[in-house]
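FORM 7B: Structural annotation worksheet

SECTION A. Query
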Amino acid sequence: MTEKQQPGAGKRAVRITLESDSGGERIVRQMTGEWFPKGRHAYLRYAEPPEAEMGRTVTTVRVEQGEVRIVRHGDVSFEQTFAPDRRYYGYLQTPQGRIELETLTQTLDVAAEGADALLTVRWSYELSVMGQTPEHCSICLTAIPVPE
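SECTION B. Predicted structure
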């Protein structure tokens, strides 16, 4: 991740693979999107696929060493931050109402510019929805450049 970038500099088309395991349910999704550096952060931006059932929603993932922040805008709004040994409060806003989220991140591993990937992020956390009993979740997010 770099210091100063010119607007639009460094943007790359990527294929994003998102693997999540939540409460024993494993989901794998693939999307196309863009990766770009800005300051000390790397960003991924993609439209949620139809199978996510989020309508027209765009997700932005901001990654830095030690922290991931996810923001969704559109038919569904969502904000949540993850950092090891930190508790964060976020929300999920749907047409049916607002859902309060609480996460306690256990592990977070950020690998920038690996063998094939521009970015690989793995994290695990406890998720409590509306104060319910937490469930263990894990995510692996990988961005691979699309050949030009």
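SECTION C. Observations
The radius of gyration is 15 Å. The first strand starts at residue 12 and ends at 22.

SECTION D. Sign-off
Analyst initials: ____
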